[in-house]
Amino acid sequence: MYELSKNAMDFINDEYLEGLLKNTKPDEFRVREILDKSLSKEPLNVEETAVLLNAEDRELQEEILETARKLKREVYGNRIVLFAPLYIGNYCINNCQYCGFRISNRNAVRRTLTDDEVKEQVIALESKGHKRLILVWGEHPMYSPEQIAKTVRIVYSTKSGKGEIRRVNINAAPQTVEGYRIIKEAGIGTFQVFQETYHHETYKKFHPGNTPKSDYLYRLDALDRAMEGGIDDVGIGALFGLYNWKFEVLGLVSHAIHLQKKYGVGPHTISFPRIRPALGVEMDYPYIVNDEDFKRMVAILRISVPYTGLILTAREKPELRREVMAFGVSQIDAGSRIEIGGYTEAGDAQSQYIEKEQFELGDIRPLDVVMRELMQDEYVPSFCTACYRIGRTGEHFMEFAIPGFIKRFCTPNALLTLMEYLVDYASEETREVGENLIKKELEKMDDDGIKKSLIERLDTIKTTNKRDLYY
Ligand code: SAM
Ligand code: SF4
């Protein structure tokens, strides 16, 4: 038995959640009542979420999508935060059946970046304009909290030209409370652990053997231990395709409610990766989520868990990413390479690297192209890292919690980091699209002190070498 948090408990009751999905009748009146409630940003409970999940009527589904769109547009605004994943090592003692890094995959090319190689990858990422990374590891005794913390420090201290990484998030094996403390000291942002599936029997099937990951409760409790270790910025997630997607949504909502109740702060982000082809993995899973259901899923999460950021990754194809974004996504990765060393060693044809990859990506377009498309669709791409650096995290701040916050901080900071990108890294075409967008955004702002000071700072970035200006 591994160490658990204080009063650790298994808060997922499969029978109860299955019962809700089986017995909830989504009458029109009830669905509309819940959608109205959501517009005031009140979190939904699992019973209410089940009502939305069970709305199979086309018209009601359209209303759900429209509510999510409206929430995104009117409440959360049009910023999209950009990041890139950096895979550090793929040795793994677990045997997750869906993953190219699983121990039983003898054909995987195993590798851990050396300190110098980490620096090289970081410089390559900085040269494209990235400011926010998520570092990713398999699970292995080599990847101790000390090794993780050391890598984080190397990333922060590697600077080239005007480039620097200002926020490092982590997706690695669950740690002990002490392990999280050590990692926190290095100054991380979010620590992510995905439950993969909340359904106990399915969890067992996909995580066989006597491995750390085969223990459902140890995994479910992972972020409780993070909270006890002082990390109040955590990300949850489920791997869609292992079990019924509606059940997984109820699992995610239950998890968010559990953290909120026990620690007074919910998850900072939710991720919803869909299973992708990986080396030696048969993709004949019965619960593969189709695009229509995927859209419904994102919309329902947006509505149910209002203070939480939603992360849509490059596992998905460009066209779908573009469409799903409108339902309330707040962060995407771009220009991503997930083969180890991929930012300096891989070209565009990623499929030949499948032995080195955890799975195949759906969107491998360069950052500049994604930035341009976002702006043409009137999103404001943002590399903002201000909140975490000023200490606005945890119970004092959740992404969307405070009225007026977006206007005062998020939008100005997004525009400042966008201007840095346009001046330092963008292609000419992207720069032109971006400068027009900034103009339009400024026109939308009230003529007050914030706007005046913002215009001055934007000008400073354009005309001097001063960077990293934020509110
Ligand atoms: N090894 C750590 C763990 O499992 O928590 C962290 C890194 S793991 C590389 C990150 C996530 O990738 C997993 O939590 C899982 O959800 C996702 N993943 C694994 N195999 C996948 C596949 N074939 N397609 C899409 N996502 C996958
Ligand atoms: Fe290892 Fe994570 Fe892949 Fe599982 S999902 S095999 S723990 S890298």
Radius of gyration: 21 Å
Strand content: 5-15%
The name CATH uses for the topology of the largest domain is: TIM Barrel
Name the CATH superfamily assignment of the largest domain. Aldolase class I
CATH class assignment of the largest domain:
Alpha Beta
Weakly predicted, low-confidence segments: none
The gross shape turns out to be globular
Key terms:
globular, single chain, binds S-adenosylmethionine, 2 domains, binds iron/sulfur cluster, 9% strand, alpha/beta
List the helices and strands and how they pair.
Elements: H1 14-23, H2 28-39, H3 46-53, H4 58-76, E1 79-89, H5 115-128, E2 132-137, H6 145-157, E3 167-171, H7 177-185, E4 191-192, H8 200-206, H9 216-220, H10 222-228, E5 234-237, H11 245-263, E6 269-271, H12 291-304, E7 309-312, H13 318-324, E8 331-333, H14 342-345, H15 367-376, E9 380-382, H16 386-390, H17 405-424, H18 428-444, H19 449-463
Parallel strand pairs: 1-2, 1-8, 1-9, 2-3, 3-4, 4-5, 5-6, 6-7, 7-8
Helix pairs in contact: 2-4, 3-11, 3-12, 4-12, 6-7, 11-12, 15-18, 17-18, 17-19
Bound molecules: S-adenosylmethionine and iron/sulfur cluster (SF4).
